[in-house]
Design brief:
Shape: globular
Structural class: alpha/beta
Strand order of the largest sheet: 5-4-3-6-7
Distance between the termini: 58 Å
CATH architecture: 3-Layer(aba) Sandwich
Number of helices: 5
CATH superfamily: HUPs
Radius of gyration: 19 Å
Helix content: 40-55%
CATH topology: Rossmann fold
CATH class: Alpha Beta
Length: 169
């Protein structure tokens, strides 16, 4: 009778780190927690797929936040509440899809919905509070006058965030 013994070792997730291009080495991954700011657009869906892949490869936790813009200006309360409730229902369905995708690949995921007016500041605050190592977010890739007129959450986030930001078109 033959007995087979298999040793299962925890797979080490390595990442290449370079001080400069002349000095690179593989080290244990520093990517432990990835954040995806999510608005259910094709751009944020694409960013989620990249983040899911990275989380799987590096053994990182995955957080998805959706910041529903809530105007600080007084509006007709009943109308605003109806819109907010509809947005929440749509986002809850989207979060369920994201949870199912992450579960399929064994990636731990947490989702959170926030009703705020300062989108970029809330992303940066989340990063600091939850020790996020990487932000992966979608961008429409607008340039020139369109970016100046409409602003860019992705651009502002990449400038203010204390960690690397990966922009996905």
């Amino acid at each position: 009778m033959l007995f087979s013994i298999k040793l299962f070792m925890a797979e080490t997730k390595l990442q290449i780190i370079c001080r400069d291009l002349n000095y690179c080495q593989e080290v244990d991954s520093t990517i432990k927690h990835i954040l995806v700011p999510y608005d259910d657009s094709q751009y944020s869906n694409r960013a989620f797929v990249y983040a899911l892949d990275l989380a799987k490869k590096y053994g990182a936790d995955l957080s998805v936040i959706s910041i529903m813009y809530s105007s600080p200006l007084p509006t007709h309360i009943q109308h605003q509440t109806t819109i907010d409730d509809e947005k929440k229902k749509v986002m809850e369905k989207s979060f369920k899809r994201l949870h199912n995708a992450a579960k399929k690949f064994g990636v731990p995921i947490k989702t959170q919905m926030l009703m705020e007016s300062a989108i970029v500041d809330n992303i940066v605050s989340f990063v600091s509070s939850y020790k996020v190592n990487l932000i992966v977010m979608g961008t429409r890739g607008r340039g020139g006058p369109n970016r100046l007129m409409f602003g860019s959450v992705a651009m502002a986030t990449s400038q203010k965030a204390p960690c690397p930001v990966m922009l996905v078109k």
